[in-house]
């Protein structure tokens, strides 16, 4: 799943200018975005005033949607560069195809990790025969300059490490937590974890004080550091924490996102991350001309055209409010 908005606007990300060096409780409300013809998502990042959390630069939450009598997710071939996509499901399944030849069905709590590097294209769709409900999150991780021109690749990890404590089960999506490490390839100090809390759970999760963190609520009723976080919203927590209090009023699902603050300044336009106007212009030209990003074979439909570039110059400016 990606940014399918036809009137795309540039997002100026990165840099340490607006990293909060101490613990905070900043509740981020989502923006409703149409995805294709049959889906709507809640976009948490980039958000007004908060562009990144560590290297995490894009977060969409969707569902649970009843797609029993609908086609479900239908995202035609589209390009990426300079980032990784993380596909994460709680319900349903998504069929991934990409220009490296990957063909993979991703199921709940399996990691689909695509590293675009210099250039890749992919499609995502609900299989023709699919489960009734679709519920998940799509996230992007910005690649640092030293790795953003790497060869594209796709990873699928069905068996991920799990950390347990009374009342909570944490599945490692990316990076490490409490001694466990995900097999997914990471290029910056980062963590992504899926947290399942049972009703009445009252726990403290160990954190890295040098990381900045946020928690996305997927389902249920939970308090994060004393703040009620409803499904589809996200609480930004800043840095300087060695632990995080969590309390569940019902069975609840959360996603913990964190990492070292990303120092480099970025331009994010449509489905590309670059460092200059020239890079974005070239990426758009290459995609529209059918070069560089490869071909997604097997998808029944045409690729997505890129939106027009804005009339003003694109400049990286860090974490702009």
Automatic annotation (TrEMBL):
Domain Pirin N-terminal: 42-141
Gene3D superfamilies: Jelly Rolls
Membership in a protein family: Belongs to the pirin family.
Domain of life: Bacteria
Protein name: Pirin
Pro residues: compositionally biased ranges: 304-314
Region (Disordered): 302-321
Record-level Gene Ontology MF annotations: metal ion binding
Domain Pirin C-terminal: 193-292
């Amino acid at each position: 799943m990606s940014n399918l908005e036809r009137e795309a606007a540039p997002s100026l990300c990165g840099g340490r200018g607006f990293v909060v060096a101490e613990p905070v409780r900043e509740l981020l409300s989502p923006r409703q975005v149409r995805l294709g013809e049959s889906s709507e998502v809640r976009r948490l990042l980039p958000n007004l005033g908060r562009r990144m959390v560590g290297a995490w630069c894009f977060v969409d939450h969707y569902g649970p949607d009843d797609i029993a009598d609908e086609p479900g997710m239908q995202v035609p071939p589209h390009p990426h560069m300079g980032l990784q996509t993380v596909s994460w499901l709680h319900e349903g399944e998504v069929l991934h195809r990409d220009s490296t030849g990957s063909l993979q069905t991703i199921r709940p709590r399996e990691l689909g990790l695509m590293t675009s590097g210099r250039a890749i294209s992919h499609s995502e769709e609900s299989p023709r025969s699919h489960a009734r409900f679709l519920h998940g999150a799509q996230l992007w991780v910005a690649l640092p300059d030293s790795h953003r021109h790497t060869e594209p690749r796709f990873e699928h990890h069905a068996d991920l490490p799990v950390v347990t404590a009374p009342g909570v089960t944490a599945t490692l999506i990316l990076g490490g937590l409490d001694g466990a490490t995900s097999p997914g390839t990471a290029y910056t100090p980062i963590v992504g974890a899926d947290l399942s809390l049972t009703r009445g759970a009252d726990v403290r999760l160990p954190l890295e004080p040098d990381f900045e963190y946020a928690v996305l609520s997927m389902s249920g009723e939970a308090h994060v550091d004393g703040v009620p976080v409803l499904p589809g919203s996200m609480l930004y927590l800043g840095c300087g924490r060695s632990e995080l209090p969590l309390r569940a009023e019902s069975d609840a699902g959360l996603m913990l996102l964190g990492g070292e603050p990303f120092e480099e300044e970025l331009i994010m336009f449509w489905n590309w991350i670059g460092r200059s106007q020239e890079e974005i212009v070239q990426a758009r030209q290459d995609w529209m001309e059918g070069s560089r990003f490869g071909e997604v074979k097997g998808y029944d439909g045409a690729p997505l055209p890129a939106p027009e570039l804005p009339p003003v110059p694109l400049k990286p400016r860090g974490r702009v409010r």
